[in-house]
Amino acid sequence: MNLKCQVRGRVFQFRDLRELMAKANEVKSGDQLAGIAAEDAAERIAAKMVLSELTLSDIREHPLLPPEQDEISRLIEEGVDEEVYGEIRNWSVAGLREKLLESSCDAAEFSRIGRGLTSEMIAAAAKVMSNLDLIQAGGKAEVITRCNTSIGQRGVLAGRAQPNHPSDDLAGIRASLYEALSYGIGDAVIGINPVIDTADSVKNVLSLTKEVMERWDIPTQNCVLAHITTQIRAIHQGAPADLIFQSLAGTEAGNKAFGIDAALLDEADALARSQKGRTGPNYWYFETGQGSELSSESHYGIDQVTLESRCYGLARRYNPFMVNTVVGFIGPEYLYDSKQVIRAGLEDHFMGKLHGLPMGVDVCYTNHMQADQNDMDNLAVLLAAAGVNFIIGVPMADDCMLNYQSTSYHDIATVRETLGLRPAPEFERWLERMELMQDGKLTKRAGNPALFVY
Amino acid sequence: MTTAASEEWITSLGIDLGTSTTKLIVSRLQIKRTANAFSMPKAAIAKRTLVYCSGIYTTPLLGDNELDYPAIADILEREYRLAGISFDEVKSGAVIITGETANKRNAAKVLHQLAERAGDFVVATAGADLEGVLAGKGSGAEARSLEIKGTVLSVDIGGGTANAAFFRQGACIATITFRIGGRLIMLDNEGTITAVAGSFLPWLKANGWDLHSGSRLKLEDYREITDRMAESLLSCLAGRGSGESDALLLVGERPAVLPAADELMLSGGVAALTEEAEPTRLEEAARFGDIGPLLAGSVMRAAAAGGFRQVAARQTVRATVIGAGMHSTEIAGATVHIPPGVLPLRNVPVVKAELPPAVMDDEGRLNEAVVQAMASAKALHSAEEQAPFALFLDGPGHCTYAGLQRLADSISRGWSAHFPQQAVAVVVCRTDMAKALGQALQRRVAERVRVVCIDQVGAEHGDYIDLGEPVGGTLVPVVVKTLAFSRPPGG
Amino acid sequence: MEAFSDEAAKLTAELAGSTPARIGVGRCGTRPLTRTALQLRMDHAAAVDSVYGVVAPELLKEMGLFTVETLSGSKERYLRRPDLGRRLTDEGAALIREKCIMKPQVQVVVSDGLSAAATCANIRDVYPALLDSLAAYGLQTGTPFFVKNGRVACMDHIGEILQPDVLVMLIGERPGLVTAQSMSAYMGYRPRFGTLESDRNVISNIHARGTQPVEAGAHIGTMLAAMLEQKRSGTSLVL
Questions:
Q1: What is the pTM of this model?
Q2: Going by C-beta distance under 8 Å and a sequence separation of 6 or more, which residues neighbour residue B246?
């Protein structure tokens, strides 16, 4: 495995694959904080050059985190389709990039190639791609998933309604949900981040959203993003949860910091499958985001793009209904400004799709980052162009519970109209029945939350 | 997010001495102090559980105008035995005297004797407004108002009065009481009147019924009377104009405007009778010796005709006593200033100082507001008396350190000027500021006065407040009450 | 904008009253109205300005606080490198050695953290109320000072130098749109290098519309007194 190159009289020597992968990243403050980023711009590109010439088997044979040491590495290894891998193992990373970008590479081919790749190979491909590469390649995938309803069809942009409230007040959650519905948002999921992590409270919020879904016959799914053990307790107490939520990290230690391991995920998976009343077969809602392993000091010197990719390697084991990368939530020490957030959003979407996952993105930022709402407008449009399955809807983009800004109900409606995208088909028919949408456009009745008061 | 909590259960008692019946309940209240890792501790009553209901006794009377205290005390002892509780484990609750019974000659005395007898910190309460509120809490109307977006009207119809309270989003927004009840007219099986409440005669007369003991009426005549009573009640509650004579049915003031009700919840002894078929013969109508069964039918028909959406109460006949036992106690904010050994304090009269931000910022106006409150406190007691009063500070929502110092200066000056002898001083704040203000006041009065300062409680001028012994050191159970009697005993 | 009936407007106002979320805001086409959009931008602007703002020297003088700095140097480095905000500069360490009472019972430290505006808005209320409360408990305080560009864990570095029994740091929180003026008080018993986060106690959301600043100051005194009495802090502290 060659880890060295000479460009314009300067020799670039990389110690190992871990260092090479890190230095091949676009600028990320998280890699700088971890002390693993390229020293300068030339070294960054040199790293990309060296990486582009490695073969896929080089990457597989030099694990960044050996399977003997790490559960996630083992699960990623188990997830590889060996037949496909056998066909492509001698491709270089550059070859992989070019294959994916070939006009002849369609959705079926894209997903077939993805099945033969490890998460590290997929991360390597992202590192040698430009933003527009990521948009075009990511857009080739069509990942359709189904719980109560289906999302992910080509031409569909779904939205998660995120009607959070700072004290889980049921009336407040309900009011914000009505607003979402009135803008045609909520086809991906009605998902609430709770403040109170108790089974009783989670059950109350699930029951509320289920009640509204039943009252208005809304074709979607509900979820409360509590800790998984709390959700399991709530479900055992009869809480009507369509999707089970969990945050994922890319290392075993990182997941331990979230209080989970594969055994717990397997247990929850079995429980989710045993619940009646949904068509399925996809029951999980996962969230990820670059930088979480560094923040819990479980990163092993591996860069945050590769670790993020490993999250998707774990996620693919469970055939989730939706995977959401919360791209700008973590703060400026991991993604400093909007340029880094935009890059990360496009990388995550591409890497997730190549893993065969139903990727959505929480296009977001915190107030101590160098970003503002205009940057979110940009990234939302870029991701929609890349065929993102869903983005997040928050009233006026301001989440009054999580204290960060995302995309708004208005924004999702606007991106749909601007790019000719539609809500998920069953949900769109419901919007038409409610006379909120006609021919893919919101009607005069839209934007009026009072419509749903009963 | 982790939440640490300490919790303690206390036994809370409710006794309702009503016009016709007396009943008792025992409940358990879970007082919870939560402190998550990021915020100040909070105190709340987390659960209220009903553990025992007594039978329903006829309220013991001596003659027409006096309560039979020994007989009532016997009921209490017997029921404590049946419930398996002892006097010293009862830490909270209320005795309420309702309807016509509140007008008996010895009502106040009996009420307070009973409260003393019933256990530590069982408070004496009365008053039509409070009765309506407690009944609405006990019946489930308050809880119902949190489930719907509109207003729930709770009407508790007992022997002597119908107490109405309007609830919206868990808060009582208006009350009104009518002299309408099942025992205002008593009759025998033949239809002969055995008694008419004196307070009811003016309305009867104004409507052309000249009734007295010995008058003999037919079933239809009685029904005409109860129909008219029910129509007056419900049209007044619906905000429709009612007959001039209906003013005679009001107990106390009629609020200028009553809220529009979206749902009606009926409770009380008369409501309990609405589940039975309407009487068709005099003997059926008179089976309790009063017009209760007839009134129940009339109310049902009037409610239906008035377009009210009716919802079933969770408790009917025991709504008021459950309200008194389970819902009269609240918990002050979790950060307070209480010197050891001062609490409990009972029957502390409340004087109010209004402190909106504009007053807080203006030293002159602030002094004026405090001095005025002190002057009205002074009128409550003679100068030598050391009985405390509670200074209730309404506002300011947010208090700066500089404002707090001005306020503490003003109050401590007022105390020295008007109450140089007082040993215990009580301040009750609406805003979360009791520990800071308590410390600021204590520093100013040094050892002379022991300052009790609690917060996150609302009260009105003229109310009385009971401060219980702190649970777990800092959680102060509080009952704010409006007494129908002008003075507490001994006061 | 789309106009709905009066009844709908009334219901919408009720819905909006049940949550601080920005709902019932109407639309022009699919976009928000100008006023709503600009209000959001203004709230964000206030939050950003509070991150990059400074605490006026006059205010620090009024509070009797001298200033030391962390290794962060600039605000940008402070944001990128949380580790640097956890250590005082050598000059800062020397200055507190020189000026401060060593081994005090209670050491009070103020920092701008992620919101200078939070310090500016609350320090006049929280700090004197805290001193009153400490006096009421008869506790001795050391020499207070201000840490520019501080992170919570610089409590540990200060603890190593001054060896206080308890230390409280009043620090600006990451600003939100609801308020950019929210302050936290982090407290610890004998903070030293290696102190776990679970050994600290915190009261957050201190601002005029949140936890009342003067009451927070009084309660912090109670918590510090409890730490001194129980000789511990964090999750095992009994209050």
A1: 0.83
A2: B203, B232, B236
